[in-house]
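Tutorial handout. Part one gives the primary structure; part two gives the three-dimensional structure as tokens.
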Amino acid sequence: MIVSLDEQAITCTADLIQKVNKSKGKEINIKYVREGSEHNAEITPIQTSANEYKLGLWVRDAAAGVGTITYYEPSTKSFAALGHGILDIDTEKLINIANGEIVTANILSIVKGEKGNPGEIRGTIASKNTIGKVSKNTNLGIYGTIDDISKLNIDTSNELEVALRNEIKTGKAKILCSLENGVREEYEIEIKKIYKNNNTDNKSMLIEVTDEKLLEKTGGIIQGMSGSPIIQDGKFIGAVTHVLVNNPKQGYAVFADMMIKEMREVD
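Part two.
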């Protein structure tokens, strides 16, 4: 993540372009952060035929996608979403974010999942409303705070307890997800396996969609459903994280306690 050019802060790509052009080809110092460590490098911009100056760097300014907020904690105004991190499309590594926003999205269509071809929820943020801030992107999801709870359509009477791992059992459970704008529904799943000693990644449970209505709509687990909370015996036990590409009916889920712990550690 680029922090500054010649000790002048960089907050977006536009800042970078402007400062590089002002250099007129003179060597500049770049300060950047990689894997938590700060580094410095000297680089000389090159003039193009369009009379601009370039560094030869491809800088990504932002990443956006459609996903599911897993839970909201009223006492801290904190939220967790996705159950997995946002990865760089090229390196497949976690993006080190400087900041981010949670915004409303409109669902446009659903592409059913098939063997070998993951489905997806397609949406737009064209008429977005910012409802919160993202402060951390981790392997166990994204975390931050909600500023405008009204857009979440939350019924506080539906508060749930978080289940302990030894309370989770194989068998029937439900997931909550929204496949239509403003509509949240429950769908039946089955927990096939539980990896109770898993404390490292987001593949804590193997789950299978059994709800015929959901299978008809999506074919199983599709992109955009990541983060959908899982409920068993009236308690929050985890969230959907991955689909098995060769069997879209099945996928993985992360334990709720792991997401709660990660949220507590947010700076």
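Part three, for discussion. The chain has a mean pLDDT of 89. The helical segments are 13-22, 212-218, 256-264.
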